Prior knowledge:
Largest sheet of chain A: 8 strands, antiparallel, barrel
Number of strands of chain A: 16
Strand order of the largest sheet of chain A: 2-3-13-11-12-5-4-14
Number of helices of chain A: 5
Radius of gyration of chain A: 20 Å
Oligomer: homodimer
Largest interface: A-B, 89 and 90 residues
Low-confidence stretches of chain A: 1-26
Shape of chain A: globular
Distance between the termini of chain A: 47 Å
Helix content of chain A: 10-25%
Amino acid sequence: MSAAKGRAATWGLSAFLALTAANSFAANDLLWREVSPDNLIFMDLHEGRVTIELNPRFAPETVEQFRRLVQERFYDGLSFYRVIDGFVAQGGDGSDLGELSNVPLIDAEFEIEWNEDIPFTSAEQKDMFAPRTGFTDGFAVGRDPAKNSGWLTHCPGVVAMARNEDADSSRTDFYIVIGQAPRYLDRNMNVFGRVVEGMEVVQRIKRGKSGENGIIQDETASSRIRSITLAADIPKQERLSALVMDTGSKGFEDLLDDRRKRKQKFFHHKPPKVLDVCQVPMGGRVTK
Amino acid sequence: MSAAKGRAATWGLSAFLALTAANSFAANDLLWREVSPDNLIFMDLHEGRVTIELNPRFAPETVEQFRRLVQERFYDGLSFYRVIDGFVAQGGDGSDLGELSNVPLIDAEFEIEWNEDIPFTSAEQKDMFAPRTGFTDGFAVGRDPAKNSGWLTHCPGVVAMARNEDADSSRTDFYIVIGQAPRYLDRNMNVFGRVVEGMEVVQRIKRGKSGENGIIQDETASSRIRSITLAADIPKQERLSALVMDTGSKGFEDLLDDRRKRKQKFFHHKPPKVLDVCQVPMGGRVTK
């Protein structure tokens, strides 16, 4: 029996430490990559700041249009008008399907042709939704080698364009995945980015009612976008930068391996040696 | 070209409607079950009300101890002191490991022996983490027929007891899963309940810093539990009741089938006919 333990002391032994050891695992071996300011987006909500990395490799046309809309300040003042807890927060002007919009439609960018020059760190071959999963440029990716194709998977934090029934009907409105990965949407949407910091802010976006399909009719009850800004448009000396895990680094491979094997004594039942590609912590750091 | 469409009109055609049709699918055939007041918990946070259903079938000892602690008002005024975005919100007094606690330890209740009297609606046999998945009493369940065992899976909204390295070391502190299902924890924790309403409230619980393993040292910066109350302890005329999907009903089976097949024209790439047991919307309704 030791002396009385205060809260701080027991925190040090927190029952949960073992569960997230992998989060800090290999921290020294893990390389970090700075996101290019051309692909870095700051979305300021009243709830706080959300930092997004765009992915022009997988969705070049979508990224180009989104960048242009951001630069035209299209989104500033608009709201998240369709928010379903555990599914998506969808924002924009709600007029994606309005014929009067003069914003051009975007072609489907659901998957890309794979080639061996594309970096890829393998995660899993037993995934239910894709023959192979892994990571490319810090993004969770699905691949079908038989069809020589690859796509960005619908993990929490993914940013994609909403659309109508037609495959080529994306235009302006976008959604962020806020719940268990809706992987059935993979290869059906223009996924063009992911939140690298600020998911806790996204999680505070006001929800609509599930009975009303998440739609918030009363704009005063919705979360508003103060502004969306491309980092490249901010003077360099004022600009924040974002560091994300280098998913091609040895340290990242070790982290995946550690999460697959779960060697800690904490695990009385050893889990199957598999990885959910959407359950690997992929946080980034935003710094001055 | 039709007449000008206002926001309300285009909302009616929202690009996303097709994606969640299954949520409202079979609403008429789906039966609802009222949660027994002995298994119904109201957790009031400053952020709002969270409604939880306890599951004594899978974790009888844990439920008994949690009920007793709730009735002793053990949790009232305590905080969520370890909160990692995308993973868990852990609350209690943080003294789970303190030797001075006079609260008894709880035995491991990681899985139960299966028998054919237990209701089960099958979801999937290709799941990465369990030979079979499905639903029992409204809860997502994993099963291993070869070992004749069953367990509650770690889906978002699941409530479980934290513990130390020892399997039998749970005591008072609990966590709620707030991100992509950490299924590697299945069969390793005393899962004893799930949030049936109020996950959007849980998502507003203040996060700790990931570099500090989510621990919030400054109590004034943490989300506090105002009170936790067992519905059975509230006079019947003042008590709210909770309705949850009857996962044994024909309507629920149809809903699963609809989500597996994705017949809507919206899907240009038909997803594999598989179901993530944690990605089936399982919301409840709390009513007077």
